[in-house]
Design goal:
The chain has two domains: about 160 residues, MoaB/Mog-like domain (Molybdenum Cofactor Biosythetic Enzyme, Chain A); about 60 residues. It contains eight helices and eleven strands. The chain has about 230 residues and is of the alpha/beta class. Helices cover about 35% and strands about 25% of the residues. The strands form three sheets. It has a six-stranded mixed sheet, with helices on both faces. InterPro entries: CinA (IPR050101), MoaB/Mog-like_dom_sf (IPR036425), MoaB/Mog_dom (IPR001453).
Amino acid sequence: MNAAIVTVGDELLVGDTENTNATWLCGRLADRGVAVRRVTVVPDEVGEIARVVNEYHAEYDAVIVTGGLGPTHDDVTMEAVAAAFGREVVENEAAAAWLEERGYSAGDLAAETTHLPADCRPLPNDEGVAPGAVVESVYVLPGVPAEMKAMFERVESAFDGIPTHAVVVAVDEPESTLIDRFAELRERFEVRVGSYPGESVRVKITAENAAEAERAAAWLRDRAELVERADGS
């Protein structure tokens, strides 16, 4: 399963807010074996959101959109997702009923709170007020991290792929000296190899088969200068 993540908000683009939602979602999807192919940040603009959602819906199995839900002037995500599918934004009776069960009357909320894309499946917001929605294979979630996480857990079972196993080997050599060994790793084993330099080089070896990843990691450990651990090993 391939997925894309779209995070909405001017505050992300100017650096006022760190995009922790995308990082968290990538981790949860990877744990389920889902390949995240795109992570995109877009401004609070209907046209930009709609264009990206339309493109990714056509290309990937699922799209997760976070941010821009609610009744304020910059909460335009529902309108944009509706536009991507050529739908209207209408009062959603199920969302309104759920909020009423939680003690919110129509007079307590701005009218736009329960306005969602026509014929969508509303998603209750267990940690907040503004509901989310599912429109075909597009999942629209809040931007507030606690609300987003709780809502994602309601739909998490819809995201299913082939789980992978990863092993990290810390190598105490310059990254440039490892190029030939990386090539041989990929030739000998059915693995993906990621190289992340810092104080040392973190080599991440990933495979669908756990034993294959472990064999590849053992092969590299035998042929590289490793970072010594605190216990001297």
